[in-house]
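Now for a chain:

_____
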Amino acid sequence: MANGIQKLLGGPPVAVLTKLVFMSIVVGAFLALLGLTPPDLFRGIRDLINHIVNLGFDAVETVFRYFIYGAVIVIPIWLFTRLFRG
């Protein structure tokens, strides 16, 4: 059973929790540096959904643009972690 939990979490629960806490602090500090707060992020998501609904077919272009913007950050990080994973 413990092996299944470790497989699900990606390692021992305490180690994973420690990593998540550390990364949350780092990301939180970065967001605070940018002046972003959780309500701002949720408001942005809500506004994005409203924007998509209001745009109709133009929404596809907007979502694709957001996808590209995000992919520029996410894909290299994912690739880096896959290449240098133990």
Q: What stands out?
A: The mean pLDDT is 83. Residues 58-83 form the longest helix (26 residues). The chain has four helices and no strands.
